[in-house]
Amino acid sequence: METLDSRASAQRRGDASPFVDLTRAEWSALHERTPLPLTAEEVERVRGLGDVIDLKEVEDIYLPLSRLLNLYVQGTGRLRASLNAFLDGNGHTGTQPGTPFVIGVAGSVAVGKSTTARLLKALLARWPEHPRVELVTTDGFLLPNAELERRGLMARKGFPESYDRRALTRFVADVKSGKPEVTAPVYSHLVYDIVPDEKLTVCQPDILIVEGLNVLQPALPGKDGRTRVGLADFFDFSIYVDARPEDIERWYLNRFRKLRETAFTDPNSYFRWLTKVPEAEALEYRRQVWQHTNLPNLTENVAPTRGRSTLILRKGADHKVQRVSLRKL
Question: Domain holding 298: CATH number?
């Protein structure tokens, strides 16, 4: 039974938290003055395999989020203008030009972060203040399989050390600095590797969304012990998609079942062999991958970065967002 002392203790903990915690009902009430710019067909196109998302979820969760992000973008622009006025008033000529607003989206494998990022791209591009929205996933900055094999990291694909973190940080820094064109490598989930000689080009977007497992990781110290600039240092806003590990494992295996019946049947698929063995054997293989790769990566590297985010979307067992935590200003 909850006592007066326990309620007071909980209240004190809440006051000390850097986040405002909202229930789904409290958050969804914020969408009322924002029109829904997507159709059911558009939602279906951006929905990831296995994600349970519909127009109601978009309306309740992602519409208020797109409005919040729009306010942040506009607020950043006003702050920049004020800073420029301050610098000009002090005889400083280093006026800052407008630069892209960068959003990071983090979370576990199979938690739905890719769908979140694609939905936000579609919604944010409908706002007249920032029609040019680009989405880049960190998969393109994974080391090629040959290099992972050489370093003995193939079984740790997705762990921080399996990425070219310097190239990824440099890419986002170049976009943030306003360079006219910045290119990124392209990753194919079909062949499970970087595609040679294929590049994604980003040309001065209004908003750049960077989605990946480890985008909120702090920078590692250099060999000289000095702290370096990390990827998250270039983010203006960051989102962590959260759920219980046991729910994510179930979604991961359900997604695998669907992939085994669809994408993995392609003759060029890296995982085509999994369609040639009994389903029970294939599922056991994926359970082992979850237990020995994805879960340790989530526990050791991904989940500890949750508190570094600006906003946390907390999902229930049905894949729907149940609570939203927003960092206080």
Answer: 3.40.50.300
